[in-house]
Structure formats: structure tokens, C-alpha cells
Specification:
heterodimer; A: alpha/beta; Pathogenesis-related Protein p14a; five-stranded mixed beta sheet; two-stranded parallel ribbon; 10 helices; 50% helix; B: mainly alpha; 3 helices; flat; membrane (chain B)
Chain lengths: 283, 73
């Protein structure tokens, strides 16, 4: 056992004074294992989403509360939750899933304001924030607040109401949590309640809306699993590389190899980036 | 000096990878490619295929890890 470990991780006569883990053949095998692992994660997260999938604790209520907390901090009045805006947000989310796009404007040219109009929400001012793949509500609102345009929507003194949709579904080939946040100020003289039931959402979007369910959290989050494997692999290589560099320098062994310091810099930065990466995209 | 240049290039690309999620695929490839090219340039006087392969395999593995992380994030 000790001999095997020594062969794998320690520069030695048996491995030609270079830890076997750092040989090109071993690195190729590790890379193939990583790729195979990713394929398995994709397959399992689709076939058994309750065991392996995305874990998301985002709720519309939390997002409204956090948005309002940011507004109050900035000395602005809290936004009122509007059911019509929430329905418009649901319709937009369903449309993105059905038509497979990630944008404010749909491939057939429908702007976000189409969803307001379809539900009879007559607005003076309106805005839309989108987010996907975040694991919690705090992450979503923080990402929006760090982006000037999204922050402007949240802290707009023109907007009075907000509606939010949080949809868990397969989107662009993987399980995803989509968040659509819509802001608006109604033309107060127009009674919108009468028009609320006259939805003109497309049939396909309605079908998705009917299917939309909040899925239970899976046992293993695919993002966390990938991150843990990547960190472990990089860390093992980094440690073996340090051992290799120290032993070779001490024993003054001359061999044909790349620059150890360069490998250490590369793996070190790779490790920092992998540790720093957070899930989620905003638009 | 050459190590400082490598650290700067990789650091900037790594920072950009974290800051601009929309460009993660391109930045992962750029990071791997930069490292590979740096390795080849540094060894141009004693360039052996084992050394080229060593840099290539490390660069490819790093880029793959970042691409997979970007896809899952």
C-alpha cells in the first residue's frame, strides 16, 4: 500500500523521479474521469432529479422582502406585490422555457411589455429583471444590486408595484431555476381588475404554466458536487506538485520537465477561481 | 519577470471569468491557451514533445474544469 502511494505521489526511482500522478498518462486519465463524471452527473440529474439536481431555496416572497429591504435602506417606499405582475412574470418565464431563449425580448420580437399588456396591466412605468441558476434569494438580489441596470430597476422611485415568478424546470438542456421580476406603476384611472381574467398567453405557455411545480430539493446539488470534485482534484495536484518540486530540488535531480513554479501558479489561480465561482446569471 | 507576466495574465483572465459569467466558455479556453503558449515560449530553446504535452495536458485539464464549472453554475 505504501509503495503504491509512494509511486503515485512521491518522486521515486520507480516513477522515474516524477510522481506518477503528474505523468501525462495520469493527467489524461484524470481528465477522462472528470469528463465521464460530468456526463454521469448530467444523466443522473435528469433521470433522478430528487437525488442529483439543482438545489434552490428561492421563493417569490423572499425576493419581494429582500427587494423592499434594499429600497427601504435607500429611503424609498416599499413596493406593493401585484398579482397581475406576478402572472405576467409567470407568463414570461413559461415563454422563455417553451421558446428556449434567455433574453428580455423573445425570438419573435415580443418585448417584456407584451406580458403586461396581455394581462391588462396598463403601466406608466415598467421594468424587468431576470435571473437563473441561483441557489438562494439573497444571491439573486445581491447579483442584481451589483449590476447598475438591475439596481436601477430595484431602486427606481417611479415604480410602485412588483410581481415575481420563480420557476423550476428543464431549461436549455439542464434543470434550472428561472426568476422573472417585473416592476410597474399603473395608470391609476384605469380599472385593471376587470381585465385581469382576460389572459392572452399563448397555448404553449399555458401548458408549461400548468406543469410548473416547485420541485423538492435533491439530495446532492450538481453544482456543489462539480465544485467539490474540481477543488479536490486541483488541490491534490497542487500538493503533489509542491512535494515533487521540494524533493527534486533537495536531491538535485536533473530531468526533462516543465517549470514547477509555473505549474504551481497555474494550479493556484485555478483553485482560487474554482473556489470563488458562484452559481447564477442575471439579465 | 516571466512568472510575474504569467501570474498577471492568468489572474486577469481568472478575475474576468468570475466577474463576467456570460463569457466563461471563452475565458476558460483563453486561460488554458495562455498557459500552454507561455509554457511553449519559455521552453523554446529546449522544446521537447514531453514538455509540450505536459503543458498541454495541464492547460486542457484546467480549461475543462472551468468549462464544466461554468456550465453547472
Amino acid at each position: 500500500m505504501f509503495k503504491i502511494l509512494s509511486h503515485l505521489f512521491w518522486p521515486h526511482q520507480s516513477n522515474n523521479y516524477k510522481a506518477k500522478t503528474l505523468h501525462i498518462s495520469s493527467l489524461s486519465v484524470l481528465m477522462l474521469l472528470v469528463m465521464a463524471g460530468q456526463i454521469l452527473i448530467t444523466i443522473f440529474s435528469r433521470s433522478i432529479p430528487t437525488v442529483l439536481g439543482i438545489a434552490s431555496s428561492i421563493t417569490a416572497q423572499e425576493l419581494v422582502d429582500l427587494t423592499n429591504a434594499k429600497r427601504v435602506e435607500a429611503g424609498l417606499p416599499a413596493l406593493e406585490f401585484n398579482q397581475l405582475l406576478a402572472q405576467a412574470a409567470q407568463a414570461k418565464a413559461a415563454d422563455m422555457i417553451v421558446k428556449n431563449y434567455w433574453a428580455h425580448t423573445s425570438p419573435d420580437g415580443a418585448t417584456p411589455w407584451v406580458w403586461f399588456k396581455n394581462l391588462g396591466y396598463k403601466y406608466l412605468y415598467a421594468g424587468e429583471n431576470l435571473a437563473r441558476d441561483f441557489s438562494d434569494s439573497v444571491g439573486v438580489v445581491n447579483a442584481w444590486m451589483n449590476s447598475p441596470t438591475h439596481r436601477e430597476n430595484i431602486l427606481s422611485n417611479r415604480c410602485r408595484e412588483v410581481g415575481i415568478a420563480v420557476v423550476h424546470d428543464n431549461f436549455q438542456g439542464q434543470p434550472t431555476t428561472l426568476v422573472v421580476q417585473m416592476f410597474g406603476t399603473q395608470v391609476s384611472s384605469v380599472p385593471v381588475e376587470a381585465k385581469a381574467k382576460v389572459g392572452r398567453i399563448t397555448e404553449a405557455a399555458e401548458a408549461v404554466l400548468a406543469e410548473v411545480q416547485v420541485v423538492s430539493s435533491p439530495l446532492i446539488d450538481s453544482f456543489s458536487l462539480t465544485k467539490a470534485v474540481s477543488i479536490s482534484l486541483t488541490l491534490v495536484l497542487l500538493v503533489v506538485m509542491v512535494i515533487d518540486a521540494v524533493v527534486i530540488t533537495r536531491k538535485r535531480i536533473v530531468r526533462l520537465s516543465g517549470k514547477a513554479w509555473a505549474h504551481l501558479v497555474f494550479l493556484g489561480i485555478l483553485l482560487l477561481v474554482i473556489i470563488g465561482i458562484q452559481p447564477g446569471l442575471i439579465l | 519577470m516571466s512568472y510575474l507576466a504569467l501570474t498577471l495574465i492568468l489572474g486577469i483572465l481568472g478575475g474576468a471569468y468570475l466577474y463576467w459569467p456570460a463569457y466563461r466558455l471563452g475565458l476558460s479556453l483563453a486561460l488554458g491557451l495562455s498557459y500552454f503558449l507561455w509554457g511553449v515560449l519559455m521552453h523554446k530553446r529546449e522544446l521537447h514533445w514531453q514538455i509540450v504535452l505536459e503543458y498541454f495536458s495541464l492547460a486542457l485539464m484546467g480549461a475543462s474544469l472551468l468549462i464544466f464549472m461554468g456550465l453547472r453554475a
